Structures are given as structure tokens and as C-alpha cells.
Amino acid sequence: MRAVQFRTVSGGPEVVDVPVPEPGPGQVLLAMTAAGVCHSDLVVMGRTAAELRFPLPLTLGHEGTGVVAGTGPGVTAVSEGEAVAVHGAWGCGRCGPCAQGRENHCPYAAPRGILSPGLGAPGTMAAYMLVDDARHLVPLAGLDPVRAVSLTDAGLTPYHAIKALLPGLTPGATVVVIGVGGLGHVAIQLLRALTACRVIALDVSEEKRELAAEVGAHTVLHSGPGAERAVRELTDGLGARAVLDFAGTPASVALAGAVAAVDADICLIGIGGGSLPVGFGRLPLGVRVHVPYWGSRSELAEVLELGRSGAVRVRVETYPLTEAPKVYERLHHGSVRGRAVLLPDA
Ligand code: NAD
Ligand code: ZN
């Protein structure tokens, strides 16, 4: 079968032929319908040999939808032909957080070498993939698998971040969204669907600022010199009640800290190498800094509901799986509008 693999350190993604895997006890074989392309894959492929925590080659892709094509001994929770989305944050399945479906916070995953698909275990960018346990599958129940696939990360990650902040996101409060790519353009829609906040979106790219306005940002600003002053002016000098940074670069993180109000929440979601100095006098009084990671299984079900209701609509560019190297180039150059999705059958 065809698969997109990261095969050598500092090498790019390659389209290769690999054997179709066989489901072992408890495992589910999915025939993939779609796989989303995330900026985190570029971060992973940019790592040095010393930084990589898993062996190569790695089949990429941590956003996936598919149809159950086979099951190993002992699997009863799903049946062949069922259309599902993959919840990609895999933990031990037995600890407190895992029992609550919060496998994204499993403290045993890393020490026990439990790896998520596309982030160490074989991922979604292939004709077929193995899922270690049926608990990682959420029924699509009629959702379009291509339009829904990126809800599993580009939807789930901002949903998890925003849900934790909801009690403070009162009507009229200002939320700043930095970076309107795959995650950011869904975050704006989530904020509009779940709150009556005012959303100010910033990006370095004009096309992304247009997208921000299209998906519901009240105000759109260029992310550069003058951005901090512009946000202060829009908030009577007070700053934003919450800041969601989907770039995570030194520049964006500095901006996130600079536009926060007293008692604000700052969420650093992007993995762009930036860090924010935290300490008395470094940030406004009462500020909380969050470093969220992905989301829980029940939160994925909730995001899929928002997709089903039409409240959230991922803007997708679709490509055949074989065009993955070109698609990653587009993502690297900031040319993807919304989310790029690979189709194994196209
Ligand atoms: P993307 O490339 O689609 O979007 C990033 C956006 O940020 C682009 O629109 C880009 O123009 C913009 N940007 C870059 N620098 C900026 C700046 N200084 N100011 C404003 N905007 C700026 O990427 P994506 O797939 O949406 O992922 C976003 C980030 O989130 C990546 O770093 C990714 O690795 C990370 N991520 C984190 C998690 C998590 O659980 N924490 C999950 C998924 C992705
Ligand atoms: Zn991702």
C-alpha cells in the first residue's frame, strides 16, 4: 500500500510502498478515507537525531478518518464497515487521566514508550492503518470524513484550550487569536460558537487575515510592529482577557505576553520555539499561562457535534496522498488556506 513516510533525519516526506498491516489481538484495521496535514509534522521532521524519540521510518499523519476494514481477536466494540475518526492521543488506557478519556495527559505514555499515530507509531497517511484499541475510535455518524478529519486535531486542540477558559470568557470580553492557520481558523469559529466574546485575530499573512474575517473574527490585524498598540487601543488600554497563540514563535509569544490584560489567560499552543518569561513583574498581575496539548476523547466527540451542527466548518484543500511532499512545501511556505487533507484513494 501507499504511505507517506519520514524516513531519514533532515529528509522530507516520501511516498513509499509498504505492506498492509495485519490486526493483532485487540487491534482495529482501518481503510483510511482522509488524513490531515499538521504543522507539527514539519516540527517533527525538523528534529535532529538526538531530539527524535522514536525510530525511523515513521508513517506520518495524526489526523485520520477511516472505515473499519478488519479486527483482531477480541475486538467487539466496532464492526466492519463502520466510519470512524481516530482520537490520536494514545495513553496507557488505565491511569486516572486515561480513565477519564484524557489520554493526552497520560503520565505513563512517554516513559512506557506509548506513541501516538504519526508521532512515533505508524500514522494516518496510508491506505490502511492499525489502531491499537477500539477506544481510540469515535463514530462519524454521518459526518463527511474529508471535512471532519481535521476536527481530530485542528478542531480538538483549540477546543480543549478554549473549553478550559470558558468561565472567564464572558460576553464582551476580548480574545486575541495569533496565527490563523489550520488550528487558528477553527479556534475563531469555536469562540464565535461557544462565547459572545469579541475576537481579534492577527496573522503575518494577508491571505490568512482574509480567512480570519471570513470565519468570524470581529477585528483582524497585521501581526508585526504596532500590533500590541493596536490591541491596547481596541481594549481601552486594558489588553485581552485571553490570548491564544497558534504560532508559538519568539515573536508571537512576545506579542501574546504584551497584549494580555490583568487576570488574563495566555495559551501557548504553537510549537515555534518561543518561550515566555514568567515571574512577578514579567506579566500583568494574576495572569495564567497554559501549555495545552491536544484534547480528550469526549472533547473530540463534542467537537464532532459542532461539526455536525454546522457551527464549525474546517476550510479544506484536498490532494491525493501521493502529492504529500508538495503539500508539506505549501504548508511550510504558509500557502495552505485552512487545512490540507490527503486522500489515499484519489
Ligand atoms: P499553520 O501553518 O496552518 O498555521 C500557523 C499560522 O501562524 C500561519 O497562518 C502563519 O502565517 C501564522 N504565523 C506565523 N508566525 C506568526 C506571527 N508571528 N504572528 C501571527 N501569526 C503568525 O499551522 P497549524 O497546523 O495550524 O499549527 C499551528 C501550531 O500549533 C504549530 O506550531 C503546530 O505545531 C502547533 N500544534 C500544537 C498542538 C498542541 O497540542 N499544542 C497541536 C497541533 C498543532
Ligand atoms: Zn497536529
**CATH class descriptor name of the largest domain:** Alpha Beta
Q: Calculate the mean pLDDT score and round it.
A: 98
Listing every helix as H and every strand as E from the N terminus to the C terminus, the arrangement reads EEEHEEEHEEHHEHEHEHEHEEHEHE
- Head-to-tail CA distance between termini: 14 Å
Number of strands: 16
Helix content: 10-25%
Low-confidence segments, ≥5 residues, pLDDT <50? none
The CATH homologous superfamily of the largest domain corresponds to Medium-chain alcohol dehydrogenases, catalytic domain
Using the CA coordinates, give the radius of gyration: 20 Å
User: Structural class, judged by helices and strands?
Assistant: alpha/beta
If helices are DSSP runs of H or I spanning 4 or more residues, what is the number of helices?
Answer: 10
Shape: globular
Structurally, the number of domains stands at 2
Q: Strand content of the residues, in percent?
A: 15-25%
CATH architecture group name of the largest domain: Alpha-Beta Complex
The CATH topology assignment of the largest domain is: Quinone Oxidoreductase, Chain A, domain 1
Ligand types: nicotinamide-adenine-dinucleotide, zinc ion
Quick overview of this protein structure:
This protein is α/β, with parallel strands linked by helices and 346 residues long. It has helices at residues 39-45, 96-99, 145-148, 156-165, 182-194, 206-214, 227-234, 250-258, 297-309, 324-332; strands at 2-6, 13-17, 28-37, 58-59, 63-71, 83-86, 128-131, 137-139, 174-178, 198-203, 219-222, 240-245, 260-268, 288-290, 316-320, 339-343. It is globular and about 60 Å long.
